[in-house]
Amino acid sequence: MNLSDFNYNLPEELIAQEPLKERTMSRLLVLDRDKDTIEHKIFKDVLQYLKQGDCLVLNDTRVIPARLLGEKQDSGGKIEFVLLKRINGDVWEVILKPGRRAKPGARFTFGEGLLKAEVIDIVEDGNRLVRFEYDGVFEQILDKVGIMPLPPYITAKLNDAERYQTVYSRHRGSAAAPTAGLHFTNELLEEIRNKGIELAYVTLHVGLGTFRPVKAENILEHKMHSEFYSITEEACSKINKAKTDKRKVIAVGTTSCRVLETAGMENGTVVPGSGSTDIFIYPGYRFKIVDSLITNFHLPESTLIMLVSALAGRERILEAYNEAVREKYRFFSFGDAMLIK
């Protein structure tokens, strides 16, 4: 299966640069696989497609201000860090820009010395392992000196950092938002609960591998970056009950989908646990848990468009994307949504 099989033409002006004023007023393209139809709705209409006993699964990760601007301690040269994931304690894997000359032992400082770092190793893709030094609580210092790491295709300034967080975010650790969840408000979630739909929360800390382009023309040669995930007994109980009752499990976002399929067993149940997942879902994959998916529109030739193609079929997804382009939907992180049912 070739990379070019997942390409589509997207005019640059359709890449959303900022969120809408009201989260639930994004557009919603509803792709019905059984009827092979497409409907155009508003996101708050998603309630029409959820039924009592269904289970909606949301990723409750919270984006950290993972972009750090500082300088090299010996020369004063400017440096940019992007935190990818915590390895253990104060050791993190980071992207450095410019980083070609940052060898083990190189030291950097941020926020006028509030935060310092030393490179301790060079790892895959030229990323670095660094050990941070600071006085106090790391998360509090990061809030002072860090910047929200918006995707590279968003060039506009974000005035309210909370608009790049879901309203249910709570576990800090992501370098990017699980963007399908950005459309929900607390009021809409309450309406969903009142309709008898279960809400189950999982955690996957989104890494920047989400935005890393696939370079191999044969997609089977692509290596996914691992990300931390966690799923609790409580969440598993709700999900497994829905499966037992022949109700639908609807994943909100590709990140929730990847957690469910990582934790899923061949018998169609999920088991609690945490760890790293590098699951790569592409056409031909047999879904064990996920019945439906709420998602945004993804980059051409990305692993995310491959995942949605695995669920709905590549040709059907490309047809839906081309329809969205014709209808001038807003694309990517701050864009509109799709329900694959």
Structure description:
The structure is a single chain. With 341 residues, the chain is α/β, with parallel strands linked by helices. It has helices spanning 138-145, 186-194, 233-244, 253-263, 303-312, 314-326, and strands at 27-32, 37-42, 55-59, 61-63, 67-72, 78-88, 91-97, 107-110, 115-122, 128-133, 171-174, 198-204, 227-231, 249-252, 273-277, 292-296, 337-340. It has two domains: 3-63 and 159-340, 3-Layer(aba) Sandwich (QueA-like), CATH 3.40.1780; 67-145, QueA-like (Thrombin, subunit H), CATH 2.40.10.240. The protein has six helices and 17 strands. The strands form three sheets. Strands 2-1-17-16-14-3-12-13-15 form a nine-stranded mixed sheet. It starts with 26 loop residues before the first strand and ends with a strand. The mean pLDDT is 95.
Helix content: 10-25%
As residue ranges, the low-confidence spans are none
CATH topology of the largest domain: QueA-like
Overall CATH class of the largest domain: Alpha Beta
The CATH homologous superfamily of the largest domain: QueA-like
- Widest β-sheet, arrangement of strands: 2-1-17-16-14-3-12-13-15
- Shape by Cα distribution: globular
Question: What is the mean predicted local confidence, pLDDT?
Answer: 95
Elements, N to C (H/E): EEEEEEEEEEHEHEEHEHEEHHE
Radius of gyration: 20 Å
How many helices does DSSP assign? Answer: 6
Q: What does the main sheet amount to? A: 9 strands, mixed
Strand content: 25-35%
Helix/strand/pairing category: alpha/beta
**Distance N terminus to C terminus?**
25 Å
Going by CATH, the architecture of the largest domain would be 3-Layer(aba) Sandwich
